[in-house]
Amino acid sequence: MSDWARLQEEVTSDLQQARTTSELEAIRVKYLGRKGRLTEVLRSLAKLSEGQRRLVGQEANALRDFLESALTARRQALRQKELEQTLKEERLDVTLPPIPFPLGHRHPITQTLSEVVEIFTHMGFAIADGPELETDYYNFTALNIPPDHPARDMQDTFYLTEEWLLRTHTSPVQIHVMERQSPPLRIVAPGRVFRHEAIDASHSAVFHQVEGLAVDEGISFSDLKGTLSLFVRHCFGPSVGLRFRPSYFPFTEPSAEVDVQCLLCQGTGCRTCGGSGWIEMLGAGMVHPKVFEAVHYDPERYTGFAFGLGVERIAMLKFGVEDMRLFYENDVRLLEQIPRRWAWG
Questions:
Q1: Per-residue pLDDT tens over the stretch 185-206
Q2: CA angle 194-200-204, nearest 5°?
Q3: Which of the four CATH numbers 3.40.50.2020, 3.40.50.460, 2.40.170.20, 3.30.930.10 does domain 109-335 have?
C-alpha cells in the first residue's frame, strides 16, 4: 500500500511540474506508455496469485483512472494557459495604421468600354449584344457586302467553315436587332471582334468595338455629326479637335471616317498617330437602303445612321499609352499607373 501511495505522490508531483503540453505528454508516456511503469505493473499481474492479483489489480486500476483524470484536467489547464499567452503575444494594436494592401481594379480596356457605353446611354441609346461566332449572312451579306468584297478575303477574316466565321465587326448586331424590333430605335453594341491583321502599335488581331445605330423618320447626317461631336466632347474634352473625312463602307451611304486630334502629341505628330497629329477613331455613315431592305424596313420612310468605334484607340488616348500591345501584356507596372475610372461629363 505504501508503494502505491508513493507512486501516486510521484505522479502528482510530475503533473504539477509540467509547464507545457509536450511535458505532459512525456509524463503520460512515462506511466501509461507501452513501457510505462504502470503498464508494466498491469502486465505482471498474471504472475501473481489470485488473491494478490485482485488486490494489486484494484490498486493499479484506481491509480490509472486517477492518472488519466489528472492528465485530462492538467492538459486543459495548460492549453488554456498557452492560448492566453498566444493571444497576449499576438495582440493587435487597432490604433496603428493598416498595412498597405494593393487592390486590383478593372482592366483599362474594360474601364474604357464601360465609360463609352455610359456616355451613349446618357444620350438615350440602349445596349444590345450579339454572338462573336457569326454566319456569313449576318457578317457580310445582310450588310450589303457582296461575295467578292475584300473583307471576305481569307487574309482578313477568320473562317471556321464556309458558312461560319469570327465576326470582323460588331455591325452584325444591328441586323439582329432590326430583325426583332421596329423603328424607332437607338442602340449601342459593345464587344470583341477578330481580324487577321498584322499586330503593331495601333493594330491587333483581337480588339473591341462599340457599334452604334439610330433609325427613325427624318434622321439626317447632321444628327450623326451632332451625336459623335457630343461623344467626343464628353470623352476627351471640349478643346479636342474632330474631323470628318469622306470614306466608303458597303453598309452606309454616304460614309465618313472620323479622326480625333492625338492627345499624346497634341497634334504635333508622334509614332502613335503616324506623324499626322490625328488618330482614326471610328467609321460612320447613313445606313444604306439595301441594309434596310434586308431587315424589311421601308427605306422610303426610314433613315438612320450607324457608327463603329475602336475601344483600344480611345484607351490609348485617355491613358497616354503609345502601344496597343501593352494592354495585353499584363505588365503590373503599367496597370498600376492606370486610373481606376474616368467620369462621364
A1: 999 999 999 988 888 877 788 9
A2: 15
A3: 3.30.930.10
